[in-house]
Structure prediction request, 148 residues.
Amino acid sequence: MTTASSSDPSTVDFWLHELRRRNWSLYFFGRDRARPELIAAVWHWPYCADVVILRSEGDAIAFRTPTPNGRDMDVLDPEWVNWVYRHTAVWTLRAVLTLADPGSPNALLHLMAAPECCRVPPEQRRPFTFRPTSNSHALQVNTPGGMS
Prediction:
């Protein structure tokens, strides 16, 4: 799921680089780090998390999920979301990066049951590579057999 240039805003690599620049935590699922089967990105706010799941360049989803127990929940298996967007990887990454901060006047407050496409089944989560950032020190992702 990589593209030719990380300096071209029409490429997935450009937006993945932007996530890293903004200190999002990245998870690369699959045996080949250079060609992951799935990429997830997470940004934690005090009481919610913004999550992106990239299944391919043509299929990606982003959502904001409440985290009432702080970071002690599996954001890749949400029960509720208050924003969800599904499109190509580039458009999904652009959309999640333009969300209003929680608590701001433009923040979304509508709560709905999380669609199935917001979930990554446990069997698809191993092996994985975790790219932590300053925003991810206590992040937990549940996988069969624990963290890798």
The two ends are 22 Å apart (CA to CA).
